[in-house]
User: Fold this.
Amino acid sequence: MSRTSVLAAIAAAAFMMVGAFGTVSAADPGVVNGRIAFGTRANGTFQIETIMPNGSGLKAVTSGPALHLCAEYTPDGRNIVYCGNVESGAFELWTIKQNGGEPTQLTHFGGFATFPDVSPDGSKIAFAGFINEPANDQVFVVDAATGENPVQLTSCSAAHPDCFSSLPVWSPNGQRILFVHADGFDADEFPVNEQVWVANADGSGAHAITTGPEPKDQVADWSPDGTKIVFTRGWFGSEGIWTMNADGSGARQLTGCVGSDPTPCPGGDDWGSSWSPDGRQIVFLRDLTNVGIADRQVTLMNVDGSNLHAITTTPALHAVPSWQARGVAQGH
Assistant:
């Protein structure tokens, strides 16, 4: 998603209640699934909340004015990294303890830093946006402890100077980064050739692992063992959740409408997927805004698409969920 489309999503989420953005966290391996974090629209803001996978224990983590989004657990599950426009209005990266408390601003670029994902060893954070002058999104990494020393990993070719790269996700072994890339935008501001890409951790060897005309937007995520990828595929209003092998082969649709169904999909727009730490479940958003219902629920299913059910129940607009690693004891 480009800066243009990200900003449009923010504005829609805040003022028209039709769009949102959130985390792109990779599933950190674990035996027990921990809490699930996500943004929730409330009184003109977005706040980060967490909930247990069975739908119990809903808890607010952030408070105050402005937007708090992009929640991503650190690999040990003890903290949450998120994006927010609290101080200057510029989106920066922030950290907070997983059970709430006083947040700490991590980056101070004055640019646009969103969609953080922490490397498996906890040393770096990948994010999307721009550092100085406004531009389409690119993928950067910074030092996780200081928020400094940004390194840009992606860029545009001469053939596609208006490209964007966004939604970065570290592989479980920390050797590769998954992201979404498009060649640019058409006259209606829709992405052109938006595909799931993968690159080495230093940005080298970047290449697409999906094809086809349908956009692949928010969001792709690795399975905890790194052999599978869950991703979103489809036109806006009729997206579905799919899985594939890590090399892009074996794509399989789990949710959503098919080509012969009406548009927008009457059952909702499914996007924002995240794999569980134990590898057995996938959480995502079922969005009904495109069929005229202001409701976007956090939804859970098994990795084969069975036992699909919402874990949030009160009508609300939620942002993309992130799963806590290893079921770390709450309160730490």
